[in-house]
Amino acid sequence: MATTEACVLHAQRDLRVESVEVGEPGPGEVLVEIGAGGICGSDLHYYLDGGFGAVRVRQPMILGHEVAGTIAALGDGVTALKPGDRVAVNPSNPCGECEYCARGEPQHCLEMRFYGSAMRFPHVQGGFRRHLVAQARQCVGVGDLVSIGEAAMSEPLSVALHAVGQAGDVRGRRVLVTGFGPIGGVVLLALRHAGAGEITVTDLVEEPLALARRIGAAAAVNVATDRDALAAEEKDKGRFDIAFECSGNPRALAQAIAGVRPRGTIVQVGVGGAFDVPMNTVVAKELRLVGTFRFHPEFEVAAGLIATRAIDVRPLITATRPMADAVAAFDLASDRRAAMKVQLSF
User: Fold this and answer.
1) Residues 128 and 38 in one domain
2) 210-215, long-range: CB within 8 Å, 24+ apart, which pairs?
3) Pair type for strands 175-178 and 199-203
4) Is the whole model's pTM more than 0.85, yes or no?
């Protein structure tokens, strides 16, 4: 069996570039030569902390789920793709048979195999490798206009599209986005594409806020240096129509609850621990507080929007590093003042 180089996490802060086995594509599968992969917040949690919550790395695991590349070989029965096609690879691989898949909710699949995840054991190996065997149905063509790094942003943009969909019609609405990391960034781009009105962004760090202003935020507020900056938006029971909480910080959710008008919507995007939620305010203002988890049909939509630059993700890609410098790339990605989205080049 052939081998390929991959970024393998052995334990907390123990990330190695080493050879792993790669097979030939079987029926319905393709071999993808990976070109670029984005470092996600979950990748950082695995690297910095060895996992998140009860999910821990218990065996060597290839990281990465935001990947794109070029079709190198086809398995039997694959006719929709050909060698040389440039594709975004959907890391979501639901079973298609469980009760949630049958309901058309595959993001909640009971047997989900999502790239680079330690939620199952044995772990599901990820996409940070030079060659990857994937299901042909996971690969979406992106054409030749955009870079392979842009194509690798299809996964985070899918998350944002699903989140925006959870809010309903956002056209013309006044929107608050709390937390401007990579997901807050794609949420802003998705909101602008969907026709949202005035968008206000908050964060605790100035550097990402400067980027938010450049890519379309009407206001970008540092709530660490000015805790009363949104006081005017909280008057008369709140003035935002919708909020997207992207930080996973309880204080940010409390701020959203205070700033959203009665019968408004708050979409909780960021993942955190237990929150102390002021339910009396949620009840009194008749707020709609909803979660959002992954995506499914949105992946093909996201790849198409990126492929035509109907949504231009280039401003969010702040650094690209070769796989050999993976450790330095992960360290850079963990510095919010220095980077937004850091990608690896394979």
Assistant:
1) yes
2) 211/180, 211/185, 211/315, 211/316, 211/340, 212/180, 212/184, 212/185, 212/188, 214/315, 215/185, 215/188, 215/189, 215/315, 215/316
3) parallel
4) yes
Pull the structure tokens for residue 89: 């690879």
Is 297 contained in some domain? no
**343 pLDDT above the threshold of 80:** yes
As a whole number of angstroms, the distance between CA 317 and CA 193 comes to 18
Helix, strand, or coil (residue 80): coil
CB 158 within 8 A of CB 107: no
Check residue 301 and give its pLDDT. Answer: 98
| Number of residues written out for the chain | 346
Do 189 and 210 belong together in one domain?
yes
Give the pLDDT score at 303: 98
**Containing domain of residue 9, as a range?**
2-153+313-345
| Spatial contact of 65 and 114, defined as CB atoms under 8 Å apart | yes
Angle at 235 between CA 232 and CA 239, to 5 degrees: 80
Residue 196 is given by DSSP the state B
Residue 335: CB atoms within 10 Å: 11
